[in-house]
C-alpha cells in the first residue's frame, strides 16, 4: 500500500474542542495503566496537563496544532511543541473511520517535512511500551529509542 498524501493546516478554534476531547481520552487510556491510575484519575490528569500546556488552545505560543486533510476530508490531527531545542510530538490522532489506510504514516511524514521547513533537523516523540502499532510505525519511519523507562510490579 502506498502512503496517501495529506496536507497539514492550522487547527481552528472551532476544531479545538473535538481535538481536546480525543487527546484527553487517548492520553488517559495510555497513562492510566502506566501510572497505576483509575480511569477517572487518568482522565483528570490528562485534562489538567492539556490545560497547562495549551492555555490558549490552538493559539498557544510554541504549540503547533494542525488538522490533516486528504482530498478535503479531515483524516487526523497533530500537536507538536517547539518549546524545547527540538520539536516534540505531543499527539497524533487518526480519525477513527480513517484508520488502517496509511494516514498515521502520512501525518508523521508531513510533520517531519513541516519541521524541516522550519529549520529543525530532528523530531522527538514518546510512545508507551504497550503500543505495538505505534512502535512499529515509528520504527519503520526510522525513529530510534533515545531513553527507556521500565517498571516491575512487586
Overview in brief:
With 154 residues, the chain is of the alpha+beta class. The chain is built from 4 helices and 5 strands; from the N terminus they run βααβββαβα. The longest helix is centred in the N-terminal third of the chain and has 20 residues, at 16-35.
Strand-helix topology:
Blueprint: E1 7-10, H1 16-35, H2 39-53, E2 63-70, E3 73-81, E4 88-94, H3 103-117, E5 124-125, H4 132-140
What is the strand content?
15-25%
Quickly give the structural class: alpha+beta
Which range best describes the helical content: under 10%, 10-25%, 25-40%, 40-55%, 55-70% or over 70%?
A: 25-40%
Distance between the termini: 44 Å
Gyration radius, to the nearest Å? 16 Å
Spell out the helices and strands N to C: EHHEEEHEH
For the residues shown, what is the average pLDDT? 92
Major sheet summary line: 5 strands, mixed
Categorize the overall geometry. globular
Uncertain segments? none
- Give the oligomeric state of the chains in this entry, treating copies of one chain as homo and distinct chains as hetero: single chain
Give the beta-strand count.
Answer: 5
By DSSP (H or I, 4+ residues per run), the number of helices equals: 4
Strand line-up of the largest beta sheet: 1-2-3-4-5
